[in-house]
Amino acid sequence: MIAFLRGRVAFLGPGYVDLDVRDVGYRVHVCDRTHAALNLGDTAFLYTHHHVREDGWALYGFETIEERALFERLLAVSGIGPKLALQVIGAAGVGEIVAAILAEDAESLSRLPGIGRKLASRLVVELREKLDDLAPAALRAPAPASSPQGSAAEDAVSALVALGYRPREAEEAVSAVGRGRQSVEDTIKAALTYLYARDARTEPLSQP
User: Fold this and answer.
1) Looking at the predicted structure, is the pLDDT value of residue 81 above 60?
2) Is the entire prediction scored with pTM above 0.85?
3) Where would I find the beta strands (DSSP E) of the chain?
């Protein structure tokens, strides 16, 4: 198994990079975002997934361990192959995709490239219990019953900011849905639903 590669960017092709690792060339398939960040002649480091099939094998490269982990979880879902999984990761960040799955927001997931409503629902059903290690700590575990509401709200805001939301919009969402909620997890899920509903009125979940 090839876990990662460090080498010189020898060639950039459509959807892949050829890395020269001590005079051995490795072709690594990457998403558009990673591809755009690479330059000929530069040294690149990529975490890799070694995908083996009966008709051959291929390497898929990622900038972070989290991207690779999500890619491997996506492959476990019926109907998603490596090309589609890579396309999905390239269209949205790990935090955004994980948050949508945990919030059971199939509608937002269905706007990702190659993901229809049925496949989006399957993502929620098959992965919502398998992403704990990719979610912020506050999103994984509810706050103790004795925690004051103010502390839960602050933790929820921090978790939303970690997912990429601006502090002001995170505070707005938590304020809108947080009343009467005792756990951080419930507050975050409700806030995410609020934010996705708001975003759906203005623009898609993400742009490729």
Assistant:
1) yes
2) no
3) 4-13, 16-21, 24-29, 43-53, 56-62
